[in-house]
Amino acid sequence: MARHNLEKQLNILEYALSSLWRHRLKSLSVLLVFGAVIFLLASFQMVTQALSDKAKQVLVHTPEITLQKMSAGRQEAIPLAYGDKLAGIFGIRRVVPRIWGYYFDEVRLANYTVMGLEVAEMPEGARLDTTLAKGTMPRPGDDAQGWAVIGYSITNALDLAGRDTFSLFRPDLSLKPFVVRGEFSRDTDILTNDLIVMNLADARDLFAIPAGLVTDLCVYVANPTEIETIAKKISETLPGVRVLTRPQIQKTYQVVFGWRSGFGSICLLSALAAFVILAWDKASGLSPEERREIAILKILGWETSDILAVRFWESVIVSGLACLVGMTAAYIHVVYYAASLFRPVLMGWSVLRPNLHLLPRLAAGDILLILAFTVLPYLAATVIPAWRSATVPADSALGG
Amino acid sequence: MLIELSQVSKIYNQGRANEVRALTGIDLTVEQGSMVCLKGPSGSGKSTLLAIIGCIFPPTSGKAAIAERQLARLPDRFLTLHRRETIGFIFQRFNILPELTVLENITLPLLPLGVAPKERRQRAHELLERFGISHRALFPAGQISGGELQRVAIARALINNQPIILADEPTAHLDTTLSREFMAIMLQLKAAGKTIVIASHDPLVFEHPAIDRTVTIQDGRIHVP
Predict the structure, then answer these.
(1) How far is Cα A263 from Cα A55, in angstroms, rounded to an integer?
(2) Which of A173, A249, A305, B135 is most exposed by smallest CB count within 10 Å?
(3) Dist. CA B92–CA A397, nearest whole Å
């Protein structure tokens, strides 16, 4: 009995395949449109996940706690002396001053992120050495005056091929020269693409920030599990200071990517809904040829459930293939083309766009989510109305 | 008796404004191995009677027993199962699916029966040989001649070796030669023990010597001259 049922299902599957082949133009159009919708959804899902992973991976190199002075809800320079007030908090390994700002290049109409810090003062493991593709960060005792380590896009923006020096304008329009000592790895593009790291004194000179002030203080802790406790103690010691922890920054990135992805997904789900409605509409109506075919099959001994099974297999094959095509295309789009369609939406409209190498994890949960949002609605939209078409009376194949 | 109808009536859309009484008080018996012609003009109720004999739907009232099975209380699913095993249909214009090959058309009734592909092909080839169209097996049915189409339709009606063959206006769109050829094949099938009921108002059919009995249907009733 089981063998008979299996043979029957195989026969019905064979008929469904032949039916799809007979209506190959229609099947191919549905496959392409459905595949495109799945491609867009899967791309969004994969790129969001890959970006979040990438951000998480890169943020490992950021300080555990960052302190910024706030005034009237806006950030302003923080006195170096604030670092001394933290001396009594147990668990702080080191406090490193940092100048973080943006330099607008009027010639190239691009914003560069400038980070000035005393790399030599940074604790072991946080010196950014591991993120360099070439060159090195200055070691303790090195003359760090005038050096710069730059992100990938800066090389292109400043046209540094074949030379290692460049100059930036101070606020008084005098030029400040730099020597390139290193270049950040492309793996960290998401954060370092437009970044210029330099000596703290050089950054102070470049932005004309008075001595004794920096934009933020980076706090490194001895035990990462103590971050929240130490952050709380800092807040109590320095009430007017904004205390940002690494987990908070990571969460912010997740939220930003999540929000952008959610917005995009809603737009794409609307497209999917439109497609499903169209599929429902198509499956509800029958052409005279289709009615005739169903009537003939029924009079030849096919049951209503057999006709429904044909429709079910047709939908499974079309949606399965569309899923395969859409998800493969999405993977290629994200991995080999760095999600070029969605980068502006997900990463902002910076002039210096990071050329990311994204590698999405294909988790079973994500695949199931995409299947649930695409294949299931399509199956419902095609099989449920097929019930009505499968009940075409068999006698309509007979003459008057 | 292989077909036994007693006081059979059929009313479409019963109790509604568009109620149609298609058959009234039909009594008909057909013995095994005989050939009966249901004759009458279009709209007389021939096709409805053929549908009841073909287990497509039960009568509204009266008794209908086909191959010793009473249809009146059979649910739709069992009517289908009984039809599969008992009835082979030949339609007006043959109702062959033109995009399918000749072989695929012939084996259509076997698919829901769970017959394996090898056996399906074997049975179809035997019939194609018998009707001399084996060279057309893999042709799309839409590309073969009218005479070949007719033989494909007959082969399909015989593929599951059903004891009863029902033909609905089979010669309505055939020329005289093909109509004669059709009746010759029916004669062979009758000789092989098949019970055949043909609905037709073509004199070439109802006056054919192989027809054992002609039943005239008029306004849903059997007309007795």
Answers:
(1) 20
(2) A173
(3) 9
The ipTM value here is: 0.87
The verdict on residue A80 lying in a domain is: no
* A306–chain B Cβ distance below 8 A for any pair: yes
Tell me the per-residue pLDDT of B7-60, one tens digit each, with 9 for 90 and over. 999 998 888 888 889 999 999 999 999 999 999 888 888 888 998 998 888 899
Contact of B118 with chain A, judged by CB distance below 8 Å, is answered with no
Q: What residues of B are in contact with residue A298 (Cβ under 8 Å)?
A: 80
Mean pLDDT of A98-114: 88
Q: Determine whether the interchain pair B156/A300 forms a contact, defined as Cβ–Cβ distance below 8 Å.
A: yes
Residues A325 and A373 in one domain: yes
Question: What fold, for B3-223?
Answer: Rossmann fold (3.40.50)
pLDDT digits (tens, 9 = 90+) for B115-134: 999 999 999 999 999 888 99
Supply the range of the domain harboring residue A358. 2-57+253-395
Same domain, A212 and A307: no
Both A377 and A319 in a single domain? yes
What is the tally of structural domains in chain A?
Answer: 2
CB of B10 closer than 8 Å to CB of B22: yes
